[in-house]
Every structure is written in C-alpha cells, then in structure tokens.
Design a protein that fits this description.
Layout (H helix, E strand, L loop, with lengths): L10 E8 L2 H6 L3 E7 L4 H12 L3 H4 L1 E2 L4 E2 L3 E5 L2 E2 H4 L10 E6 L5
Parallel strand pairs: 1-7
Antiparallel strand pairs: 1-2, 3-4, 5-6, 5-7
C-alpha cells in the first residue's frame, strides 16, 4: 500500500496486520481501517479496542492509560512504536503490525 496524499477533511486508509496471539484476539489476520485525517496511532488503537473489546482490551492495549502492554509490539511502516511514538499521526497507506513480543513457529 503506497502512501497517498489525502485532501483536508477526507478519510485515510491504513492496513493493520495481526500476528501471533493477536490473531486469536481479533479473529483476523489483516484489516484495512478508514480513519479521519490527523488520527494518531492512539486513535487507531482506541478504535480497535472498542471494536474488539476483550481480550484485546486490556490484554494488548489499555485505552484508559493509552498504553500498549509490555508483551506486545506495534510497528508503523516497519518502525517500532517506541521510536515513532504512540501519538504519531498516521498517513494514508501506512502499514501497522501488532504482534506479541516473541512470535515463532
């Protein structure tokens, strides 16, 4: 998915990949989410938390504290969330991966 510019006020689309144990919490391998322009990674996680409920919330992400649990990793376009920040603004075409800290097999 290539990054494309979005006109002000329009929606953007991001691809979300669920790996390992996260797949069992979402019953999906991948989603494409439509978000408002200016949505942050936190906004996406809040949306996923609301959509999937338990066990996504609180096992992976706590929407009240706005934190990802230490046993899970989130990447935006191959860069760890710790490097881009949980409040990073998402762009049209971004690829987000949510996975356990260790995935194997």
């Amino acid at each position: 998915m290539k990054t494309r510019l979005v006109a002000k006020g329009q929606k953007l689309k991001v691809k979300v990949n669920y790996l390992g144990l996260v797949k069992t919490y979402t019953n999906r391998i991948q989603d494409e989410k439509e978000l408002s322009e200016g949505t942050s990674l936190t906004g996406l996680l809040d949306k996923l938390s609301s959509e999937f409920g338990k066990p996504f919330n609180p096992e992976i992400y706590d929407p009240n504290k706005k934190e990802v649990k230490p046993m899970f990793v989130i990447m935006v376009n191959g860069v760890l969330m710790d490097q881009v920040g949980i409040e990073t603004k998402l762009k049209n075409g971004d690829n987000i991966v949510i996975m356990p800290l260790m995935t194997g097999g």
